[in-house]
Amino acid sequence: MESAVIRGYLHVQADLFDNEIRFGRNSKSVSAGESLISFIYFDFSPLVNRLHYTIDDFANAHPYFKACSPQWQMAFVEHIEKNDDNKYMPSLKDIIKLQENYKNLLHRFFAFQGTYDDSRIREKLSEDEWIRTQACFARMSVETGDILHMSLDYLVSSLDECLMVEFIEVLRRKIHFKACKNCGKLFIPHRTNTDYCSRVFTPDGKTCAEVGYTQTFARNLQNDELLHAYTRAYKAHYARMTKPRKRVANMTRDEFEAWYEEAKQKLELAREGLLPADEFTAWLKK
Ligand SMILES: [Zn+2]
């Protein structure tokens, strides 16, 4: 007997006035784009070739899975376990392919250092073949019943449509994804000057932000020390030229200028980490 077709219908509500989005009516809202980002980095590899699944296995992949009806969830899990061809249900392979496509797309748009760039997105969008093959047949209506949460209500019927709605909402709202300077993954910066995401990065639980700022701080501190040593040496050498003394080697103007040129170059190299700091300070003391 052929099983009844169970479509994965879901109300996706995109707020009309702020960047919140809800997956399922009356569900908790999240920032538009957050779910898309967690989807593109979700690790599906432990789910490949398993005999049994529960819907919780997919809970962190995208809120869509948990927000759909219990009937759909049961049918989806059964379908994934049997790996049958049901054209209304995505296979694990389909989901992974979808993930790859969105990951590539979003990285082409956003994985660069810099501020939000409209023209770059237009250009990348015009080059993209895949996004033009995507379609969404969602019924859309305006929900104005709740004065605090007025939204566009999309009734989507699949994960594909759900992702597409979110993607379009991200584009329309000009939400800026940034690439983390530490791990390279995209994130939504909550402050404009943030360069690092808040994902846990080290085995002992340090986040990219903690790793990044510690490194920047240490680098700045070292650069301050290098500059300080350079300034001290500059004054000492300058004095050798202008106030000749008996005990130290005096310098002519030419000698001083040659030293000054070399010192400047060495300072730059040391600040870039191309010359070891201790070698630089030892040279300054000569
Ligand atoms: Zn990161």
What's the topology here?
Layout: E1 10-15, E2 20-23, E3 30-31, H1 34-40, H2 63-67, H3 70-82, H4 92-110, H5 118-127, H6 130-133, E4 139-143, E5 151-156, H7 159-172, E6 178-179, E7 186-187, H8 208-242, H9 253-271, H10 277-284
Antiparallel strand pairs: 1-2, 1-5, 2-3, 4-5, 6-7
The structure holds zinc ion (ZN).
Zinc ion (ZN) binds next to loops.
Short description:
With 286 residues, this protein is of the alpha+beta class. Helices cover 47% and strands 9% of the residues.
Please, could you describe this protein's structure?
This protein has 286 residues and is α+β, with helices and mostly antiparallel strands. It folds into 2 domains: 10-192, no CATH class; 209-284, no CATH class. It is 47% helix and 9% strand. It contains 10 helices and 7 strands. The chain has helices at residues 34-40, 63-67, 70-82, 92-110, 118-127, 130-133, 159-172, 208-242, 253-271, 277-284, and strands at 10-15, 20-23, 30-31, 139-143, 151-156, 178-179, 186-187. The strands form 2 sheets. The chain has a 5-stranded antiparallel beta sheet. A two-stranded antiparallel ribbon has the order 6-7. Helix 8 packs parallel to helix 10. The longest helix is centred in the last third of the chain and has 35 residues, at 208-242. The model has no long low-confidence stretch (mean pLDDT 90). The structure holds zinc ion. Residues 180, 182-183, 185, 196-197, 199, 208 line the site of zinc ion. Zinc ion binds at residues 180, 182-183, 185, 196-197, 199, 208.
